[in-house]
Amino acid sequence: MTGPLTAHAVRAVDQLPVRLGGEHMPRRPEWTCDTCPDTDTPWPCPPALVRMAEYHGGDDAALAAYLGALDIAAYADQPDALRHELRRIGPAR
Predict the structure, then answer these.
(1) Residues with Cβ < 8 Å from 27, sequence gap 6 or more?
(2) pTM for the whole structure
């Protein structure tokens, strides 16, 4: 993938350590949580979602846009996977 969407996805991934405090980071390219006890926990795990929601301070649109950029990064890491297999995030609340 090339273009501005890819650049946006790269920036989103680069911001994860700050937004998550270095915990519950995605293990790439599998996109599983690197902190949860179950090594197969799909990312974003519940603690990661809570931290990102707190970071966005209730701005659901900004959180949804950020998660969408991460979705692009997950697809880039696993281009042969079906979209529904990559992410298990639901819509913003």
Answers:
(1) 33, 34, 43
(2) 0.80
